[in-house]
Design brief:
Strand content: under 5%
Structural class: mainly alpha
Helix content: 55-70%
Number of helices: 7
Order of helices and strands: HHHHHHH
Shape: globular
Largest sheet: none
Radius of gyration: 14 Å
Number of strands: 0
Distance between the termini: 45 Å
Number of domains: 1
């Protein structure tokens, strides 16, 4: 991992993926540090299309590490803007929130339940 970080220190997608790997390894501090680097490497102001991906990663990390306030704040922000989703294949929607197991720790939170509701135009 150190090789990748040394050679591609500003590759935000690599940093985001490594952050998620560290969540799986139960290394919250490392996951958050990598996520911070990813957000700095590609802020929303620089790239409105891909920049929000790091915010989604923050939501996922926060949900998995017992920080529901941070997770829900990040999800609220993402759902309020046009965003294709971290995977670019599946956009972040209320339906995805209802199904994605990474958000299971938030299921009992009424704020999260509200985010999962489909909004009618």
């Amino acid at each position: 991992m150190k090789f990748f970080l040394k050679e591609q220190a500003q590759t935000y997608s690599l940093l985001d993926n490594l952050a998620l790997i560290n969540v799986g390894l139960v290394d919250k501090a490392r996951a958050m540090a990598l996520r911070e680097r990813a957000m700095a490497a590609n802020p929303i102001e620089k790239d409105v299309k891909a920049g929000p991906a790091s915010i989604e990663i923050l939501a996922r990390i926060a949900a998995q590490t017992g920080e529901p306030d941070r997770a829900i704040a990040a999800l609220e922000k993402l759902l309020s803007m046009p965003y294709a989703g971290w995977t670019i294949v599946v956009p972040l929607t209320p339906a995805l929130l209802r199904l994605d197991p990474m958000f299971d720790p938030l299921r009992g939170d009424p704020r999260f339940q509200e985010l999962c509701k489909d909004k009618q135009p």
